[in-house]
Structure formats: structure tokens, C-alpha cells
Amino acid sequence: MTRQPRRLDLQARLPTWMMHLPLEQMDQMAYTNPRVIAQFAQILMATTEVLVRIVYDLQVQNSARRIASVLQRISGPANGVVALSQEELGEMACATRRQVSIALKLLAEEKIVTVQYAKIIINDQHKLKIFMKDE
């Protein structure tokens, strides 16, 4: 949309649908219906909100809380399954594999999560949110 090179690379972790709309078609849509510009702006704002949340997650000093914050963000409000290995979760949380293991053990002891092979099940979103904000 900015007509500049991409700054991010996206990688789908699960089966995903992706739509591509060429810039020329976007321009035509905006020309025929000015409301389209506002709708494209909403998409950009949603992306910005995600990026701000990622920055917030990475600023959390305590590694267990940072890992919990990443889990809460990527699991979303309704879906309680995170299809990631502990190594991948560590990459997203800027944490070592050992820190992830310790954090998940702590969360599992509190019955907040269940850890399975390449999958983490969020049992209680509310408790996870409390844990990640608890000082």
C-alpha cells in the first residue's frame, strides 16, 4: 500500500487462507468508493495494534511473565491452543529454551496451561492474564 519494499516477513504456522489484492485494483476500488480507504486504514490499524502488543510483550522484564504474555497474545481471546514448540515460543518471547521450560512448568502447576508435544493448551485465559500482569 505504501509502494515501498516489504519490511516484514510473515510465516503461517497453521493452515491459512491468504488473499492478494494488487495495488492497481486497490486504487480502482478507492477511486470508485471513497469508503474503501477507511476500510484499508482499519486493516492497517489492526496490524499496528498487533505490532504494539509485540513490543509490549518484549519489554516485560520477568521471563515467565513475558512468555505468558506471548502465549496470551498468540492464543487470542477464544482459541486456547497454541501450536508451537517450546523453542519457537522462546524465539517469540526472546527467552532461552530453559526459561520457556521453567515458565511452562510453573504455568502447568497452576493448571493455567497443559503442555503437549508441539502444542500448548491454555486452560484458563483469565488466570493467564492475571499471571502475566502480576508483579
UniProtKB/TrEMBL annotation:
<protein>
    <submittedName>
        <fullName>Crp/Fnr family transcriptional regulator</fullName>
    </submittedName>
</protein>
<dbReference type="InterPro" id="IPR012318">
    <property type="entry name" value="HTH_CRP"/>
</dbReference>
<dbReference type="Pfam" id="PF13545">
    <property type="entry name" value="HTH_Crp_2"/>
</dbReference>
<dbReference type="InterPro" id="IPR036390">
    <property type="entry name" value="WH_DNA-bd_sf"/>
</dbReference>
<dbReference type="GO" id="GO:0003677">
    <property type="term" value="F:DNA binding"/>
</dbReference>
<dbReference type="InterPro" id="IPR014710">
    <property type="entry name" value="RmlC-like_jellyroll"/>
</dbReference>
<feature type="domain" description="HTH crp-type">
    <location>
        <begin position="61"/>
        <end position="126"/>
    </location>
</feature>
<dbReference type="GO" id="GO:0006355">
    <property type="term" value="P:regulation of DNA-templated transcription"/>
</dbReference>
